[in-house]
Amino acid sequence: MSTSHKETPHIKPGGVEIAETILLPGDPLRAQFIAENYLENAVQFNNVRGMLGYTGTFKGRKISVMGTGMGTPSMSLYSWELIHVFGVKNLIRIGSAGAIQDHLNLYDIVFAMGSATDSNYGHQYNLPGHYSITASFELLEKAKKIADAQGQKVHVGNVLSSDIFYNADQTALKRWSEMGILCAEMESAGLYMNAAHAGVNALCILTISDHIFRHESTTTEERQTAFTKMMEIALELA
Predict the structure, then answer these.
(1) Residue 214 annotated as binding site
(2) What positions carry a catalytic annotation?
(3) Cα separation of the two ends of the chain
(4) Where are the domains of the chain?
């Protein structure tokens, strides 16, 4: 059976093909925005639980986009199915993050070279030590070249993928900051571990939507423009 006719309890394409390269925003409405504004001949392949997914073409190359929800469990569930059931080879998360370094500013773009985490997702692999969670260098190198060609300044480094949004320990982010962590988000660790275990490529591209220590944040309207820059880098990776 071809992958276009397979389905899972969470993804039911109804015969629509899912491309080998997929963009993964957390918000399914962001997936819809990309499909409607960037993809040609976009066809919806999923709406189970409102998690919208689409396949179309960008500059003649087939590409898919789908929401993942928030947090490692949600990202890990969808990315595992996309990899193992539908044959996706390149998974690119595009999301928002909160800066915890002073040299980062609102709207800056971050490529997550590494992903520190407080999640216990990796326990399933029964590794005899601590696993270093990293992006695919193939995608990271290509993304940096695309950003340079577009004249987009980006930050490349380690991010925090946390299971906790409202942390009872209000000193936690300060300690991560002292280890050089650039920003905090909630999905990259699960995505990177799934991809590594399956031998496929993953990269997390983030836009700084707020600065946690400076109490700065963007509006919904402002995020639309900032996210667009990130999308345009990601789309070129197809």
Answers:
(1) no
(2) 210
(3) 25
(4) 3-235
Which 8-state DSSP code applies to residue 14?
Answer: T
Say whether 87 counts as a known binding-site residue: no
- Residue 186 CB: number of other CB atoms within 10 A? 25
pLDDT tens per residue across span 181-203? 999 999 999 999 999 999 999 99
Q: What is the pLDDT of residues 92-145, one digit of tens each?
A: 999 999 999 999 999 999 999 999 999 999 999 999 999 999 999 999 999 999
Rounded Cα distance, 142 and 164, in Å: 31
205 in a labelled binding site: no
Structure token digits, residue 140: 């990271």
What does the block give as tokens for 42? 């976009």
- Residues 30-52 have pLDDT tens digits of 999 999 999 999 999 999 999 99
* CA proximity to 66, closest of 41, 85, 89, 92: 92
Q: Where are the beta strands (DSSP E) in 118-227?
A: 154-161, 183-185, 201-211, 216-217
The pTM of the full predicted model, rounded to 2 decimals, is: 0.95
How far, in Å, CA of 177 to CA of 182, rounded?
A: 7
CATH code for the part of the protein at 3-235: 3.40.50.1580
